[in-house]
Fold this protein.
Amino acid sequence: MAAVTPFRGWRYNPDTVGDMASVLCPPYDMITPETQDALKRQNQYNVIHLEAGEGLDWTASVKEQYAATANLFDAWMQEGVLIQDQEPCYYLMRHSFPLGGKNMVRLGLIASVGLEDYQTRQVLPHEFTEAPAIRDRVLLMESLSANISPIMSMYRDADGVLDKVFQQVMAGTPVMDAKDDAGGAAALWRISDSSTQAQIQEFFSGRPIYLADGHHRYEAARQYQLDRHAEGAANKAANLAHNFVMMTLIAFDDPGLVVLGYHRTLSGVPEDKLANIKTRLDGLFDAQPLAGDAYSLVEQVTELGQKGRLLAAVDRDGAKLLTLKDSAVKPDWGVLAASEAWVIEEQALRPELGDATLDHLGFIHDHDEAVNRAINGELQMAFLLKPFPLDAFESIVGGGQRLPRKSTFFFPKLPTGLVINRLEGEL
């Protein structure tokens, strides 16, 4: 299976940057212009200066686009803002965050993972990607020769083998423990002991890795690797850093692995087609009125959805609980019949909208916004979906299928800036 190896990570020097929480940021695809400005003001060394693409001009050369970012990265390494570990390490992250009045904790192993073509079935994707976002991340790697943010991935550890290892590691003192103002915290331990590293490598030697969040970054890293291979046979040596990508690996069974619903919206559909879509929905689902505010609606869908295939549909007339009829399910639907999002898109929308489906279908994880915009008529409909079950995720993706776009919203996103992975030379 894909090699999961230690690497010599670059980490912030706390003596230089001060409060470690102030230098972290979300992944690039969660960063709005407002977030970017706030993070820059928070700390002059915030990793947002390296992670985000700022004001890119697609007609300019790679050098011009990311020249300032590359120069800043070089300066930080030379000036000791970032310091490289002297020996290859795994890094154990303990990420704490508040959710629903509870404090959640998840553990992630930050490692360098060998890049594989999807066809090898060693690294398993669950969604499709878009070329512009891949190109942007390739350009960043071309300029910095580094992975700034880790890809979030998952693995199965039913017997808790690694959890026992991690508990032993966390008995030691972390090299970083950062607490933010929102009640979250990120602690980091280095794993440099050779016997522990060997145990971890052996554990992953026979297991597939499931991509959770970061498909664009993975495919960008794969393109970066192929570009290096094209430069000469010497670049194909297995131990070269550009043949790997940084990931944070989290167990499927980790109680802090949280998936939230990713909802759908409908707008701009001609009235005759909208009427036909509603007729199709009536044929697919049993409907009953549903009351409550946005939070209550999502809670009801989440709870009831544990025992059935259902969702909530909201429009100006209110909310309805839609439960998929057993009689509506056709044999040729296959395993994707487990996805309410797939049923909505492929069985209700696409037959009426065809290739224009995505012109009218939107994706949103904020249930308040979705419900409010549907109730006030800004949207024609909103579909509130339950979190996609991880057992179905593993079964479908492990069987070689991909889920409908925006099926999962892993919460919260991984913090960027705990460790940086250079892509030059050997691991």
Observations:
- The mean pLDDT is 94.
- Residues 2 and 314 are 44 Å apart (CA to CA).
- Residues 62-79 form the longest helix (18 residues).
